[in-house]
Design goal:
The chain is mainly α. The chain has helices spanning 21-46, 62-77, 83-112, 122-129, 149-164, 173-187, 189-192, 198-206, 212-225, 231-248, 262-280, 288-321, 326-369; strands at residues 250-252, 258-260. The longest helix is centred in the last third of the chain and has 44 residues, at 326-369.
């Protein structure tokens, strides 16, 4: 899941933007990778009754890179204007579409789910809106598994604003914070993959400790692109983030052996290098029509991310039972996710963000005049 505060809306801009279209391209690409991963791989993992997919993309890479992108733009924009307005703007961008998507998914599950699927209750809706699943996954089930990134982003933006308000958010001190965010979880890695106490697991997973390196990577990429961090120092820090990603992807098998998903790990490593190239290099020269399409999709990509998975799985079920080929099922899921994301952007994300921002500005002006 990613920060769209730096992304234009689906509408054509009134004046020329200095924003790199390359960022639109990588953001759009990451969301498409998430959709393909869910459509071709996770759909069969969670619903093995589906016909095997002819083409499978089994690498969990898109969502992780979206967190890196989110951290990059958080660092790039946090110094612009009021810190309180910065935080409010991020909350106004992320929370309303999340609420809208959850209600939509709950309604679809309740009234359009396949007969064999469990009916979600009102408590399931409340638990998901409260984002309790990262804390107690055994007790609070996901209505949509893609949403695990949302609380991490909300916490990340809140921590960034709180940190920026202190001396530790500026100058060389921020580098110490970045290294601590990488090394502290690494030091606890052995405890995390063993039979750790439930309270420890709840705190580590709830605060996303084992994913902090993704935020560090995004901030580090911004710092090296703006020459706030030397290239050698950046290379060592990014390599540490890559090592943390590899350890994150280790799991303990039932026989006690450790196994790592090296495919997903390598894909995230490559993605980090691509993002570094985008941040430090010139903008990509793309055909105007392609650039406009990427910008449009990037503008709706957060809502696409929020709405595509569970609704897409229901669509796959009905298409599969009616004999639709797997490739067409995948295309239908991608198309439906895009349309739902566009609709949610138009109906909820954009108007809610604009209204909440106007509310903040009115209240701020009233405080200043008072």
């Amino acid at each position: 899941m990613h920060d769209l505060s730096a992304t234009r809306s689906g509408r054509a801009p009134q004046k020329r933007s200095t924003r790199k279209v390359s960022w639109d391209a990588v953001r759009a690409g990451c969301v498409v990778l998430v959709m393909i991963y869910h459509a071709t791989h996770m759909s069969r993992v969670t619903h093995p009754e589906l016909t095997p997919r002819l083409v499978v993309f089994p690498f969990q890479v898109g969502a992780s890179l979206l967190l890196v992108i989110s951290a990059y733009f958080a660092a790039a924009t946090i110094g612009r204007g009021s810190l309180r307005r910065y935080w409010w703007k991020r909350m106004a961008r992320l929370v309303p579409p999340f609420v809208g998507a959850v209600v939509l998914i709950w309604l679809v599950l309740r009234f359009l789910r396949p007969p064999s699927w469990q009916e979600p209750s009102g408590w399931d809706l409340a638990h998901h809106l409260l984002m309790l699943w990262n804390w107690k996954p055994a007790e609070y089930a996901f209505l949509d598994g893609s949403h695990w990134t949302v609380p991490l982003q909300l916490m990340g933006f809140t921590f960034a604003a709180a940190l920026f308000a202190t001396r530790w958010g500026h100058g060389n001190k921020i580098v110490w914070v970045l290294w601590a965010a990488v090394l502290l979880p690494l030091a606890q890695w052995h405890l995390r993959i063993t039979a750790a106490p439930e309270t420890y697991r709840m705190l580590v997973d709830g605060f996303g400790v084992h994913r902090w390196h993704l935020f560090v990577a995004g901030v580090a990429i911004w710092m090296v692109s703006t020459r706030r961090l030397g290239r050698v120092h950046f290379a060592v820090l990014l390599a540490s983030c890559m090592a943390a990603q590899a350890l994150h992807n280790y799991v303990r098998l039932p026989d006690g052996q450790l196994d790592c998903d090296w495919g997903s790990t390598t894909a995230v490593w490559i993605g980090m290098l691509v993002l570094t190239s985008v941040a430090c290099g010139p903008d990509w020269k793309l055909p105007p029509a392609l650039a406009r399409g990427l910008t449009w999709f990037a503008g709706i990509s957060y809502c696409v991310f929020l709405t595509h998975q569970t609704v897409g799985y229901i669509l796959l079920h009905y298409l599969d039972t009616n004999g639709v080929p797997p490739v067409l099922q995948t295309l239908a899921m991608l198309t439906t996710g895009t349309l739902l994301g566009w609709a949610l952007t138009r109906a909820v994300e954009r108007p809610a963000h604009d209204s909440l921002l106007r509310l903040y500005d009115r209240l701020a002006a009233r405080r200043q005049s008072g």
